[in-house]
Specification:
alpha/beta; homodimer; 2-hydroxyacyl-CoA dehydratase (chains A, B); four-stranded parallel beta sheet; globular
């Protein structure tokens, strides 16, 4: 028995079923990632992390739990501030699941007409086939969308959950309300970890998180170049890993990669052929290991140069103001960033997202926009009405794509996306 | 040209398309309603109101607008307190639409995977085929579910809208927040109507609305009898009319009908044959003219004896505390009733609804429960997990039904519902 298998058994996982996933993941990763030419060497770290995704980091988390008494807090949404967990000496890890492998398990308890991300997350939990779900001391849910809001009730039958009620609008009173939610979240995390959140620890956590964002921003900036030194799928992978890796080590590794990309920039190295069309993706998140669209686009004459998504710009672009001097000010700054600067379709109205897409399309010199919707995500699907209208007005070619985690629509997507990219020529 | 046609033209309606609806509605109403035997005479009023649904009340509303300068406020949810509108001398009218006729119009702007109620409402507006949408001076939306929350953004492109942000939870701070929303709503309605909401007018509005609820409650109580003196479909129709009729006249008419039912009670008159199975419906609302399920159930050996729905008990069961002495106390009482005592699946958690269903099943002596879901309503669909579980634990036979506004599934529903009712024997 490998060390991983022993760990998974100790975690009470369904090891036999999980083995099926362990068999298919390397093949999928190889197909999407290792077929690429001229990848930066700095990708080695991220290859390693994802290569043993259910081994390396879980083992590390368990060690920190056992040896240092640390608590692991699992989250499902970029509106939930990691800083609070860090400031209380805890570990935050994202739990959104991106594989069809987990979907049937979710469908045992959820309606079929639920988005695959939510179904996969609950499936990963109830089928006991994801170590991260087994390790967490607390799950933190939110009321961002109907599917998640109601799914947490089912998840909470089998795990300790804490729910943050995110305002559905962004009026001045909603910021006050979100501050109150963050304050209550601090109290809950202090309880769970047994540690106080102090001015010092919260300030430090804000800086750590900002540094991670800055590194990701630095990485994204290379995609604005005419000669793009890194593929879209590689950047996506890094964004996905950002959700569960140690933030300080992750930042260091991203910056190391960026040093290498600086050299590529000087040497005008591009991983794409001349004439490759620059595609901006907007819409629902692409959780690990959901690499389907990037693979199709980048195998069809396109380069993904920006993701206006939770697994992309929405996660890293805005910083928390670091000038807060006391807890109240810091909470206010957190609320400002986590409510004000994430333009999720869960808000009404959400015009700022449309402005973001147009701005990003310019900054990243997009030739076209693909509006991606995970099947049954009603909020992004409805907002697509405004995205398509605004793109038409701005003269930016745009198509809407609806997909899920299966491969059933791969051929259809290849045809549609291929035709769209061809049309851009 | 009839008076109605002249009015519809003046309202800028698409009269030609609307005529198609005018042709099919009487037939549908006749099939469902006029085939019943031994209906109470008190139904005559409601027959008349629905018989000229796009004529009588719209003409009355226009007259009140023109002659008394009254404002008409259209709403889509029972969480929005009518009392505020009444207290400012305005008229409140429900706008939720229940016909497949309007769905294709809604699908022009909304995802197909949106619930038919929302699609029909937007279709009725954009196709200009419902006079109520044309008459309203203001639409009031809310953030109860994803579908509605995002649909209002599209509707607001073509009409003045005001949005109330309903809390997604029911903690003490959420009641405070809902009070604030109600206070802001008062300000908005004062602006629109030009009238102040006073202690006197708000108190009077609370009493008027409570009287309506008491009348409906009195009506529903007859359905607890062994000999049920009125059909489920008739009670449903009355609940549907409650949303748009003049509240004082409506209350009078319901009470008049109840006087007649009192006599039937004494005489032990039942409109159902002995052995008819008593069915409680729970789930999503049945907006006018959605009578499909009641017709199927009551033609298959069942009697609908209670609707744990927005078009049912959720609308009328809880009263607003009338003891408030000033605006603040009255707003607090409104918040308590409109947040605390409506157990919509939009809340998390929503255990109180499960308790309601079990309590109502006992009070109304239900033989079985049908959990009804409008297709693509994720919140009620997900909550169905808890409904079915709780019914199994309580030993109450239960089936889940998913349907929309089309008649395509009528045969399938007849078979399933027929088998369910047979199984209860």
């Amino acid at each position: 028995m490998t060390d991983n298998h022993l760990m998974w058994e100790n975690l009470g996982m369904d090891v036999k079923t999980h083995d099926i996933l362990c068999e298919v993941l390397p093949q999928a990763f190889g197909d999407v990632y290792l077929t690429q030419e001229n990848r930066p060497n700095g990708m080695d770290y991220f290859n390693m992390v994802v290569g043993d995704i259910h081994g390396l980091r879980p083992a590390e988390l368990i060690k920190l739990q056992e040896e240092e008494g640390k608590k692991v807090v699992g989250t499902f949404c970029i509106h939930v501030p990691d800083e609070v967990v860090f400031a209380a000496g805890g570990i935050a890890t994202g739990l959104c699941s991106g594989s069809q492998f987990w979907v049937p398990g979710g469908e045992k308890v959820l309606p079929t007409a639920t988005c695959p991300l939510i179904k996969a997350s609950l499936g990963a939990h109830f089928d006991k086939t994801c170590p991260f779900f087994r390790i967490c001391d607390l799950f933190v849910g939110e009321t961002t969308c109907d599917g998640k809001k109601k799914a947490w009730e089912i998840l909470s039958e089998d795990a300790e959950m804490y729910i943050m009620d995110i305002p559905q609008m962004k009026r001045p009173q909603d910021f006050k309300k979100w501050e109150e939610e963050i304050r209550n979240y601090i109290t809950k995390i202090e309880e769970i970890t047994g540690n106080k959140v102090t001015e010092e620890s919260l300030k430090e956590a804000i800086v750590i998180s900002n540094n991670k964002r800055k590194a990701l921003q630095r990485l994204n900036n290379f995609r604005k170049l005419d000669n793009i030194p890194i593929s879209g799928r590689d950047v996506l992978l890094i964004h996905q890993i950002a959700f569960y890796d140690d933030p300080t080590r992750f930042t260091e590794m991203v910056n190391k990669l960026c040093d290498e990309l600086d050299k590529r920039k000087e040497e005008e190295v591009s991983v794409f052929e001349k004439g490759t069309k620059r595609i901006l993706l907007t819409g629902t998140p692409l959780s690990i290991p959901n690499w389907k669209l990037h693979q199709i686009i980048e195998n069809s004459g396109g380069a993904v140069i920006c993701e206006e998504m939770c697994t992309g710009i929405r996660y890293c672009e805005a910083l928390v103001d670091e000038s807060g001097e006391n807890i109240d000010e810091m909470v206010e700054n957190l609320a400002e960033r986590y409510l004000g600067h994430i333009n999720c379709a869960c808000f009404t109205p959400n015009k700022a997202r449309i402005d973001d897409i147009i701005r990003l399309a310019k900054e990243y010199k997009a030739d076209g926009v693909i509006d991606v919707n995970l099947k049954f995500c009603n909020i992004y699907d409805t907002e697509g009405y405004f995205v398509e209208k605004a793109m038409a007005e701005a003269g930016i070619p745009c198509i809407g794509i609806e997909t899920d985690y299966t491969d059933e629509d791969a051929e259809q997507l290849k045809t549609r996306i291929g035709a769209f990219i061809e049309m851009l020529s």
